[in-house]
Backbone:
């Protein structure tokens, strides 16, 4: 199966994230703080740590609740990133004096009228250094970039969406199918796939039904897995134990399932991401609205200008389904998944709604330079919800 949109161009080879400085991300906010209001906005630079680590540091140092912290999106861990946070229940003097550790720096503090919420961003800007590239990497990258500027970037979620063991989507589907035993075993993990000594021992104990031993040796940092085991020890059913996990983690599993189904659709349309078909549902990049394509020849001019793009389905309740050839592909895919609207909405607080997502995106400012150290630096911006690794993989084409 064709792996890359730009498969006719050789890749540069090389690796990213050799150091946190090699992967720089800067949030493009949906709005800037106004300078007045009850909410304090922090422009934060973090290095080699997660967005949630910053959240936990703010909670602990300021002695506030999780609900008092706002952020627009999660940023890469092994990277240097800048993003906005909002804080309630504190004051400017305290924040100016706040020390969050050597890898977190508050660069700016401003007031605003509302709390920052998930999705309140236009996208992210990236500066990514690729090390260990081929001698002709610069010329190769320019050829690939030219092609991507014309056709757009495949909008894969990519493997990072599926977790460190690549099975988050499997857990999500098991939960939707109410197969909580399968979900349980996927969450605890197959001993054959686990290299961590203590986690491996816990998975072996769980496999043999020894819950006490599994709890005893499971690493303490694995709070959700421990909570699940403790619920089972207390007599909970597999369903109750799985649903005892933090709701945000459960939503992550379900979202990963949607992502994997969508990625399969991108793969199926990889040679025609820029072509509208009769019955396609098109995405208007400027507004985020969707419409059904009745006359593909007429609309293709807008697609050629990257104003609109064909979409794929993130399955869930009340799906807006394509028609024609695309509709046949979607119907076959959904039939294979074997899930119904009733299953998508069966779990209280975890209902899964369908969405449409563009199969490709534009990357404004996409260019590359060749620093004197023999590496390659790629710069570009992407809309919110799109992943830099999907672009970089087209350039690098590592096996």
Residues:
């Amino acid at each position: 199966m064709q792996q890359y949109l730009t498969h006719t161009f050789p890749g540069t080879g090389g690796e990213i994230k050799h150091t946190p400085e090699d992967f720089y991300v800067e949030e493009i906010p949906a709005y800037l703080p106004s300078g007045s209001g009850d909410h304090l906005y922090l422009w934060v630079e973090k290095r080699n740590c997660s967005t949630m680590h910053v959240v936990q540091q703010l909670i602990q140092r300021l002695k506030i609740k999780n609900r008092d912290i706002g952020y627009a999106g999660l940023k890469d861990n092994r990277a240097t990133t800048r993003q906005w946070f909002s804080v309630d229940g504190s004051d400017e003097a305290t924040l100016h004096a706040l020390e969050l550790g050597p890898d977190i720096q508050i660069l700016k503090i401003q007031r605003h009228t509302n709390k920052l919420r998930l999705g309140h961003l236009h996208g992210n800007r990236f500066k990514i250094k690729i090390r260990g590239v081929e001698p002709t990497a610069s010329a190769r990258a320019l050829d690939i970039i030219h092609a991507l500027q014309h056709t757009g970037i495949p909008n894969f979620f990519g493997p990072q969406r599926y977790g460190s063991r690549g099975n988050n989507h499997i857990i999500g589907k098991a939960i939707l199918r109410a197969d909580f035993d399968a979900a349980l075993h996927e969450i605890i993990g197959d001993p054959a796939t686990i290299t961590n000594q203590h986690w491996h021992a816990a998975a072996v104990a769980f496999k043999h039904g020894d819950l006490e031993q599994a709890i005893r040796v499971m690493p303490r940092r694995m709070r959700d897995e421990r909570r699940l085991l403790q619920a089972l020890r207390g007599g909970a059913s597999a369903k109750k134990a799985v649903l005892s996990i933090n709701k945000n983690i459960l939503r992550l599993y379900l979202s990963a399932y949607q992502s994997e189904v969508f990625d399969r659709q991108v793969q199926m349309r990889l040679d025609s991401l820029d072509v509208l078909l009769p019955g396609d549902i098109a995405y208007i990049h400027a507004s985020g609205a969707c419409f059904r394509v009745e006359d593909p020849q007429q609309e293709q001019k807008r697609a050629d200008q990257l104003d609109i793009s064909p979409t794929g389905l993130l399955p869930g309740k009340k799906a807006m389904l394509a028609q024609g050839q695309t509709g046949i592909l979607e119907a076959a895919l959904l039939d294979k998944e074997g899930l119904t609207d009733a299953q998508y909405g069966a779990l209280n607080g975890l209902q899964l709604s369908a969405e449409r997502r563009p199969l490709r995106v534009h990357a404004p400012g996409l260019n590359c330079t060749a620093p004197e150290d023999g590496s390659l630096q790629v710069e570009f911006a992407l809309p919110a919800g799109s992943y830099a690794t999907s672009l970089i993989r087209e350039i690098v084409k590592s096996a």
Notes: The CA atoms of residues 366 and 380 lie 4 Å apart. The chain has 14 helices and 14 strands.
